[in-house]
Amino acid sequence: MRSAVAVVTDSTAYLPAGLAERHGLTVVPLQIAVGGATRDEGDISAAEAAQALKEWRPITTSRPAPERFAQVYKAAASSGAGRIVSVHLSAALSGTVEAARLAARDAPVPVTVVDSGTIGMGLGFAALSAAATAMSGGTAEAAASAAVRRAELTRSLIYVDTLEHLRRGGRIGAAATLLGSALMVKPLLDIADGRIAPLEKVRTSSRALARLEELAVAEAGERRVDLGVQHLFASARAEALAARLRERVPHVEDVYVGEVGPVIGAHVGPGMLGVVVAPHL
């Protein structure tokens, strides 16, 4: 039975195939331009984007147009939704939230737009919590609150091979403090106040990946959690890390492993590995 509250998110949630559909989520794609041709994020493969990044070909990303959100909101209302909750990536990283709010003004039903303050599976888990609340009969206010609370509890830990892609994309923020020694370190990052922030500097990639694992285990602690292990062009490392986390995290429920799409990939570059720790509400 369709919920009276529809939940919308965007493509940077990078939910595993079929998961959005099973939870009744509608996903609005961001756009990416490679070589001057602009396409929806879902229409370009991560491998194609990774190859362009390796060749240092210019890649740019952009938010969905407000009209795209307007179409989705109209379709949800036509399908019987009386309220809509629209959960999106951090407004500090993208204008997607702003586009959603512009569309919400003229939507046929009330729309609550949620700035998750995060991206990737951090956003994905927040949207899934909103959808689960809606599907269980919760109000739009309850669904939005669930998304906000899950996002607040969630921690995103990120390893990148180089900061150069973040610098070129203008998303480096406080992590710029690491640039002076970028050739000498492998940076670990997290998301703080909606922005990418420096966490630690580690001398080698092997030590950085071991430290990423340790931080994820410590963050999970004894809580009941879901985990997202995300990567770009590093599937073997991601699967190995996920297997170790399944063994080491005592109360893990679900572990999702997947490749990030080109919108995030354009800013983090090939070799990126991330762990999202999402405690249950």
TrEMBL record:
Q: Which InterPro entries match?
A: DegV, DegV_C, DegV_domain_contain
Q: Which domain of life is it from?
A: Bacteria
Q: Which residues cross the membrane?
A: none
Q: Is Nucleus included in the keywords of this UniProt record?
A: no
Q: Extract the GO molecular function terms from the UniProt entry.
A: lipid binding
Keyword entries, A-Z: Lipid-binding
Cross-referenced NCBIfam families? DegV
- Kindly provide the name given to this protein in its UniProt entry: DegV family protein
